[in-house]
Design a protein that fits this description.
Layout lengths: L7 H6 L25 H7 L15 H14 L3 E5 L2 H12 L5 E5 L4 H15 L2 E5 L4 H7 L4 E7 L11 H10 L3 E5 L4 H4 L9 E5 L13 E5 L1 H15 L5 H11 L2 H20 L4 E5 L9 H7 L6 E6 L4 H10 L4 E2 L9 E3 L2 H7 L2 H6 L6 E5 L5 H13 L2
Parallel strand pairs: 2-3, 2-4, 4-5, 5-6, 10-11
Antiparallel strand pairs: 1-7, 6-7, 8-9, 9-12, 11-12
This protein binds pyridoxal-5'-phosphate.
Length: 394
């Protein structure tokens, strides 16, 4: 049994740490630093600065237990938990590019990632970018320039959940010595394993499904050891967006139920999306789990399931009616973020037009009638009843 490759459920549930007095849950090491017996001991520890416990900004035993589990289920060699998803994203991107380089990405990436690439990196480091429709691999090929160093992906992408063909894009990138990063938050490592399809670096907002209880803001970077060690020595250590021990402990708690939570999110979202698809006040539903989804075949090929986040477009364009619909919901609480036990509703038009230019908003293929819901772990019949009551009002 010892050398056998364990399945994800076992990796996430099983702990066997010798120094915890038989406690079934690994302890919370709520300390900033570690002390040593002698000069020689601390001197030796610094020879493996990122493997030994010296200072909790670099490595903490509680956080490391969670990191090792996440790396294992993603099929990566190492993982680093960070203070937020956006810290993981910006660290991974900064690892891949230098001043005057070029990035290719897709139109529907998460808003702040869009701003980081298109504005921050351009203004500070003259890093240019091309935002393309990621559905066709040829668009990536056509956008490559001599100084392209990174292809940044988010599949399924934000709000409309369009996919990119991960295997084909990573093969193209490798043939041109371009690094690939993917935001894999939507599918989670349960339903999609990009590193196994050739992607170099996987990032997540752990605030969503990996955390799963709407009580942690966190992020994670997963990759092979050489890449992770470089990020540890540079972006992670120097920019300092580290994870607090207690957050690591909460994430460890969350990981134990990740597999069953994802299956329940998927089941509920399938019921809800099918209900919405057949409702005459709904124009269209964006959900890769539906057979009607335009890229359903690719979804089946590169993912093993679909999560609980979906969008739909109401038939009405009347903003008062759209507001009435959102405000009348009971179980879908109005708020940002997603991926927790609790169902949520959000109208992207509220904040996206404040964060992005109208042109970028339109390029994402969205409008004011598009509503996003995060389908939680409540009973799906109650959730459908809630949607039905609110749709009756408009
Ligand atoms: C797809 C996606 N990636 C990244 C993030 C950023 O994560 P965090 O809020 O943990 O910084 C979000 C947050 O909403 C997101 O939706």
């Amino acid at each position: 049994m010892k050398d056998k490759k364990l399945k994800d459920e076992t990796i996430l549930s099983y702990d066997n740490y010798k120094d915890q007095h038989g406690a079934v849950v690994p302890p919370l090491y709520q300390n900033s630093l570690f002390t040593f017996e002698s000069w020689d001991h601390i001197d030796k520890a610094f020879d493996g600065k990122y493997e030994n416990f010296i200072y909790s900004r670099l490595l903490n035993p509680t956080v490391k237990v969670a990191e090792d589990k996440i790396a294992a289920i993603c099929g990566g060699e190492k993982a680093k938990l960070c203070a937020s998803g956006i810290a993981a994203i910006t660290s991974a991107i900064l690892h891949c590019v230098n001043a005057n380089d070029h990035i290719i990405t897709i139109q529907n990436i998460y808003g702040p990632t869009n701003n980081f690439i298109s504005k921050y990196l351009k203004e500070k480091f003259n890093i240019t970018s091309t935002f393309i429709d990621g559905k066709d691999v040829k668009n990536f090929e056509n956008a490559i320039q001599e100084n392209t160093k990174l292809i940044y992906l988010e599949s399924p992408a934000s709000l409309t959940y369009e996919l990119q063909d991960l295997k084909a894009i990573s093969a193209l990138a490798k043939s041109r010595s371009i690094k690939t990063v993917i935001d894999n938050t939507w599918a989670s490592p349960v339903f999609q394993k990009p590193l196994k399809l050739g992607i170099d670096i996987e990032v997540h907002s752990v605030s969503k499904y990996l955390g799963g209880h709407s009580d942690v803001v966190a992020g994670v970077i997963v990759s092979k050891a050489t890449i992770l060690d470089s990020i540890l020595g540079n972006e992670h250590e120097l920019l300092g967006a580290k994870m607090a021990p207690f957050e690591g402990w909460l994430i460890l708690r969350s990981l134990r139920t990740l597999m069953i939570r994802m299956k329940a999110h998927q089941e509920n979202a399938m019921h809800v999306s099918q209900y919405l698809e057949n409702h005459d006040k709904v124009k269209q539903v964006f959900y890769p789990g539906l057979e009607s989804f335009p890229q359903y075949d690719l979804a089946q090929k590169q993912m093993t399931g679909s999560s609980g986040l979906l969008s739909f477009e109401l038939q009405t364009k009347d903003i008062q009616k759209i507001k009435t619909f959102v405000d009348s919901l009971t179980f879908f609480k109005l708020g940002v973020s997603w991926g927790g036990h609790d169902s949520l509703v959000y109208a992207p038009v509220i904040s996206y037009l404040k964060e992005l230019s109208p042109e970028k908003f339109e390029a994402m293929g969205i409008n004011a009638s598009i509503i996003r819901i995060s389908v939680g772990l409540e009973n799906y019949q109650d959730l459908i009843g809630d949607l039905s009551d609110s749709l009756d009002l408009i």
